[in-house]
Design a protein that fits this description.
By secondary structure, the chain is α+β, with helices and mostly antiparallel strands. The chain is built from twelve helices and 18 strands.
């Protein structure tokens, strides 16, 4: 059995290596015109910049009177270029947008800008957030899918391979019901995914566009291959014990492991050659372990003749399966940028902490079964069979809780995505001025401060006696703001308490006094979010 599982793991890793490019969860890092900025004339296009390539899903443009118009967009690298209709009136305009990240998760928002002057009554922001009802339904549907994959496919593998096809009719009916539940949940998930992508509400569930969007999404690919895995598991249950049933159950296990790598946060982590095999191995180990709990509980509770022997065979597989589960899980956590700090400081980390606590309890119960209850239950000891069934029942409940927690990750970007977005935002809030006389790196801080780092043309620290700053936004009609910078350290100056009335392109001029006879003037355009 161990040799069989080793070969199976190699197949899974090989399938998972068939991967595409990797990206983080998309985040808007800038726009042109900038958010809430005032421009003199119609820009013709709006450029939305993200930290990774995105796919446009739904776009609507609102005029100052709140009238909405559908617009089209094209993509260029990480930018979305939105073509605007002809604009005649001055006032505030709103672009409602919804795009799909590379990991398949949709994000949305509304960008505002004004032409000439802001409206007295701002253009309405279109509702792009998921309603609470759709969020709950997506979460419940994902739990149903996981029950079908882990409980149904893992259960079918246990019955046909570990238990050698000898099991009570109750086990067969229960696992078939889980496969059916997974199929129904997956079918509903296509529509719910489409609703989420297009930003619609439940009344639009009957629209063909909604279902087509769900089918064409990366999660749609996952669900499609998951359907194949559910079908293979059902075929295995319908066949008598033998090579065909074993092969079908094994193929279902491989298919669901590969399906997990087609979408989701973990499937897009870098390096891809480590992330997707680790995700596939994690999925197959979870399916083997978690899927065995309910059918084994049924065998033990009904005092089936194969109960003790099946429990013993599963117990022998527990140690290598858990080892794969833990090692692959640690690899994924590392690749997702999980640290001790963000275990408590982020929603993703809190969900991970909850999952880890539940899994640790399950591991403790598994160790109890392996060392005490299973060896004694093998000999038909009624007392220990009863105790084993109680522990397995608790394990099944804990597994349900784990699946509920894991389904919550659908709505929480991992730490690596948050860090990548923050880095992209910082990069867009920086200005590098390079001249033959000297250089300056200017960065907007999180509290309205402006950091200025000076160096000469060769990159060495530039020691200055005084630095004065001038900021202007001619497009918004804002005359230059004059400020005196404060010395922080050699080559490092700061301007505190700056307030930018509007975002957009600001002309920045630095007057650097080096000595009584030497000065330096630097100029550039700083993009203010």
């Amino acid at each position: 059995m161990l040799r069989f599982l080793s070969r199976l793991a190699l197949i899974v890793v090989g399938c998972a290596m068939l991967a595409g490019p990797c990206f983080a969860h998309a985040t808007l890092v800038g726009s042109d015109p900038a958010e809430s900025s005032v421009v003199a004339t119609s820009p013709g296009k709006v450029r939305l910049s993200f930290n990774e390539p995105v796919t446009p899903l739904a776009l609507k443009f609102f005029d100052p009177d709140g009238r909405g118009t559908g617009v089209t967009a094209s993509t260029l690298d990480n930018d979305l270029l939105v073509e605007l209709p002809t604009i005649a009136a001055e006032g505030t305009y709103a672009l409602s947008w919804r795009v799909a990240s590379a990991d398949g998760h949709p994000i949305g928002g509304t960008s505002l800008f004004s032409i000439g002057h802001p409206s007295h009554r701002s253009a309405p922001e279109a509702t792009t957030a998921r309603t609470s009802a759709i969020t709950i339904l997506i979460w419940l549907a994902r739990i149903g899918v996981y029950l079908g994959w882990i409980g149904g496919i893992g259960g079918a593998f246990f019955l046909m391979v570990v238990a050698a096809g000898q099991h009570p009719a109750l086990a067969d009916r229960t696992i078939t019901a889980l496969l059916g539940l997974g199929s129904i949940a997956a079918a509903l998930s296509f529509g719910l995914q489409g609703l989420d992508e297009l930003g619609g509400n439940l009344t639009a569930i009957g629209s063909s566009a909604v279902w087509l969007a769900g089918l064409q999404s990366p999660y749609g690919e996952t669900l499609g291959l998951g359907f194949v895995a559910l079908l293979l598991a059902a075929i295995a249950l319908r066949r008598p014990a033998g090579r065909l049933a074993t092969g079908s159950a094994t193929a279902a296990l491989v298919a669901v492991a590969f399906a997990l790598t087609l979408s989701g946060h973990a499937s897009t982590a870098a390096p891809i050659w480590a992330a997707r095999p680790a995700l596939a191995l994690h999925g197959i180990a979870a399916t083997l372990w978690g899927g065995s709990l309910l059918p084994l509980l049924i065998l033990v509770a009904t005092r089936h003749e194969r109960a003790g022997r099946s429990a013993l065979r599963l117990s022998a597989l527990l140690l290598p399966t858990v080892a794969v589960l833990v090692l692959s899980g640690l690899t994924l956590a590392f690749l997702q940028g999980v640290t001790v700090a963000n275990l408590r400081g982020t929603d993703y980390g809190r969900l991970l902490s909850g999952k880890l606590m539940l899994v640790l309890v399950m591991l403790g119960l598994g160790a109890l079964n392996r060392r005490i209850l299973v060896p004694r239950a093998v000999f038909g000891d009624a007392i220990h069979l009863k105790r084993l069934s109680r522990v397995l029942a608790v394990d099944v409940c804990l597994l349900l809780a784990v699946l509920a927690v894991v389904a919550g990750w659908r709505f929480t970007p991992p730490p690596r995505s948050v860090a990548a977005a923050e880095a992209a935002l910082r990069h867009r809030s920086m200005l590098h001025i390079h001249t033959a006389q000297g250089m300056a790196m200017v960065e907007i801080g999180s509290h309205g401060d402006l950091d200025i780092r000076l160096s000469d043309a060769n990159g060495r620290l530039l020691i200055a006696r005084e630095v004065r700053l001038s900021l202007a936004n001619p497009a918004a009609g804002i005359e230059p703001l004059q400020r005196q910078a404060t010395l922080v350290a050699d080559g490092h100056w700061r301007v505190d308490g700056l307030t930018f009335p509007v975002g957009g392109a600001w002309t920045l001029r630095l007057s650097v006094l080096i000595s009584d006879f030497d000065s330096l003037s630097l100029e550039g355009v700083l993009t203010v979010p």
